[in-house]
Amino acid sequence: MMHSLEIDGLTKTYAGSGFSLDKVTFSIPRGTIMGFVGENGAGKTTTIKSILNTVKIDSGTIKLLGTIMTDKDTAIREDIGVVLDAANFSGVLTPARLSKVMNGIYRQWDQQEYIRLTEKFGLPMNRKLKDFSRGMSMKLAIAAALSHRPKLLILDEATSGLDPVTREEILEVFQEFVEDESRSILMSSHITSDLEKIADFITFIHQGKIILTAQKDELIYDYGIARCRQEQFARIETSDRLAYRKKDFQTDVLVKDRQAFAQKYDGIIIDNVSIDEILLFLVKGEN
């Protein structure tokens, strides 16, 4: 299987902070979208900075499209699109002027694609960016990132703070992007409902460590939460639970295969589970 991004044993420590990335390892198959989730301070942004070679890592390897990027490697940057949680374009520019700037930076700049996306997003080409709303600014950043024809798109909270209609428009564009199976997306987001709509895989990070990587459909359709009374919880074998959380008169148990669990443990109610709930169990639960 070909991968757009391969991270193996990534370690990064910030002196005096007490935080470090601890042997972070995951990969993104080509033609797929990887959701990247974790609580604030879990290490998502540091991982993305490491991928982009904007911080010096301590150890491990990061391959972008099969290549380890160095400071001198400018060619591979043509194939990487990046959208961060805040657009960094000068406020005095307009979308029309921005396209001329980008055309001078990227050899692969596709003006027709840029026009198509800005029209799709309804962006005024001659309005200064300082007068754009956050939603308009993020749409423009996405249009610019996609218009130099990248093969890997890296998003850090690109849809946070946007209204549902705007987010839906942006998610549609991301899905269009990966229809070409040579392209992939790494999407770091706190809005897990967006990831539930479009992601193929989800990677969970906590305190600088990867705690789970799985197919999104497996998480949504196979995982579940067993609602147990005290005597029911006592019957559950340790190997059949991923994590649990105790309440006053009930213990909720995260299970990997809710159908198999239901067959083995008759009489226990099992509910569907969301990405948010899985993260909460993995971070706050006991195991």
Q: What does this 3D model show about the protein?
A:
This protein has 287 residues and is an alpha/beta fold. The chain folds into two domains: 3-219, P-loop containing nucleotide triphosphate hydrolases (Rossmann fold); 222-284, no CATH class. The protein has ten helices and 14 strands. It has helices at residues 44-51, 95-105, 111-120, 134-146, 164-177, 192-198, 216-221, 230-235, 258-264, 275-284, and strands at residues 3-13, 20-29, 33-37, 59-64, 67-68, 80-83, 152-156, 184-188, 201-206, 209-215, 224-228, 243-246, 251-255, 269-271. The chain has a six-stranded mixed sheet, with helices on both faces. The protein has a four-stranded antiparallel sheet with strand order 2-1-4-5, covered by helices on one side. A four-stranded antiparallel sheet has the order 12-13-11-14, sandwiched between helices. A hairpin with a 2-residue loop joins β9 and β10. α3 (111-120) runs antiparallel to α4.
How would you summarize the topology of this molecule?
Elements: E1 3-13, E2 20-29, E3 33-37, H1 44-51, E4 59-64, E5 67-68, E6 80-83, H2 95-105, H3 111-120, H4 134-146, E7 152-156, H5 164-177, E8 184-188, H6 192-198, E9 201-206, E10 209-215, H7 216-221, E11 224-228, H8 230-235, E12 243-246, E13 251-255, H9 258-264, E14 269-271, H10 275-284
Parallel strand pairs: 3-8, 3-9, 6-7, 7-8
Antiparallel strand pairs: 1-2, 1-4, 4-5, 9-10, 11-13, 11-14, 12-13
Helix pairs in contact: 3-4
